[in-house]
């Protein structure tokens, strides 16, 4: 509220609030094979990058890499939430679509910010 521009600090607060909302509504935690498995590491990487003094674009780039690792992690665990939870152990070996879509959205935001930074 009252912001005219999204800084790296504001983006970090927004990402944290989004994750908290998703966790609260969906009752998901890391390791459940959900989008949280991509978003939590993305947030941690974003925050660490921000603490290192990086700008918004660099923080987003770092977050994307962490989210991609989160997708890979979801291949190693059984689904505990959502439709995939009905598959149980049979979901191992498949990446979570929620983690994938969350990472795609984060990558699109990163790409947009990269382009606008160059202008």
Describe the protein:
Helix 2 runs antiparallel to helix 3 (56-74), helix 2 (36-51) packs parallel to helix 4 and helix 3 (56-74) runs antiparallel to helix 4. The chain is 64% helix and 0% strand. The chain is elongated, with a radius of gyration of 15 Å. With 119 residues, it is mainly alpha-helical. The mean pLDDT is 95. The chain has one domain: DhaL domain (Serine Threonine Protein Phosphatase 5, Tetratricopeptide repeat, Alpha Horseshoe), CATH 1.25.40.340. It has helices at residues 8-26, 36-51, 56-74, 97-118. The protein is built from four helices and no strands. It starts with 7 loop residues before the first helix and ends with a helix.
Features:
4 helices, single chain, Serine Threonine Protein Phosphatase 5, Tetratricopeptide repeat
- CATH 4th-level superfamily: DhaL domain
Order of helices and strands: HHHH
Number of domains: 1
> Can you summarize the main beta sheet?
none
Write the layout of secondary structure elements.
Layout: H1 8-26, H2 36-51, H3 56-74, H4 97-118
Helix pairs in contact: 1-2, 2-3, 2-4, 3-4
Please summarize what this structure is:
The protein has helices spanning 8-26, 36-51, 56-74, 97-118. The protein is an all-alpha fold.
